[in-house]
Amino acid sequence: MGIAAVGLTVGAPSLAMADAGFQHDSSSAGPEGATLSLVRSHVSDDGSVSYEHVTYTAGPGSAGVDRINSMAE
Fold this sequence. Notes:
Blueprint: H1 3-16, E1 20-30, E2 33-43, E3 49-58, E4 63-72
Antiparallel strand pairs: 1-2, 2-3, 3-4
């Protein structure tokens, strides 16, 4: 087995233990205003999980933020 193969074999368990995440964003704009939505989720190698959904809106007379957060350990 070559040195590179040993490095890949030894490093493989640490790759399986890495954090994992997901993010998606979407946006739109028009004459009445604009919106931006973000969805994020993350799973840590210790098993804790977080989720966030945020929507930013802006219009001719106002602006706002709607946020949902969740976490489990």
